């Protein structure tokens, strides 16, 4: 029902735009120079070979390693500890207005000459929230009563996620502002797309590795099977 409703809204709004929005024919923008695939990639490689860009790419590819586990695994571990998936999904609803407002607020602080200052300041707080997320997972079985969780536990989870969104968007908006600021206007689209792609990759590969490492790093104990190891998936199944 949810997907059907928003699918209908999407179809109606885009159809209305197609019929009602008229192009401004008076202002004809100057024709941009277009490059072929080979020329574009040659340009990308020449950009990425620049010492400053190369250093920045290395930094941004590794900057999110510290909170990859907290971002990728916390929700899954809470479900594993018995928190209903539908409750976690509902907790995401209050985050929506926050996600809309935060970029507007943060952009005021990233519009200056040093947008990355916001990135640096938010990083230690996001790292600390990773520890707090670990505490939430550890705390879950302690407060679980008859298969349910008290309201105060959900309140703490919502507050934790809200604070996490503040740090996440502070870093995200700051890095986007920096990429826009340093990109050469003559090749702005290519330059900025390259930096944004590296930024996205820097957030995705640590999460993938964190998820892959969950099983090998999880300590398991076997109940009722003395001397039997549960270290591997096959052993745990046995």
Automatic annotation (TrEMBL):
Gene Ontology molecular function, alphabetical: acetyl-CoA transmembrane transporter activity
InterPro entries referenced in this protein's UniProt entry, alphabetically: AcetylCoA_trans_1-like (IPR024371), AmpG_permease/AT-1 (IPR004752), MFS_trans_sf (IPR036259)
Gene giving rise to this polypeptide: Slc33a1
SUPFAM superfamilies: MFS general substrate transporter
Residue stretches spanning the membrane: 6-22, 43-67, 87-106, 118-139, 151-175
Keywords noted in UniProt: Membrane, Transmembrane, Transmembrane helix
Entry membrane topology: Multi-pass membrane protein
A GO BP annotation: acetyl-CoA transmembrane transport
Superkingdom per UniProt: Eukaryota
This protein's name: ACATN protein
GO CC, any one term: membrane
Subcellular compartments: Membrane
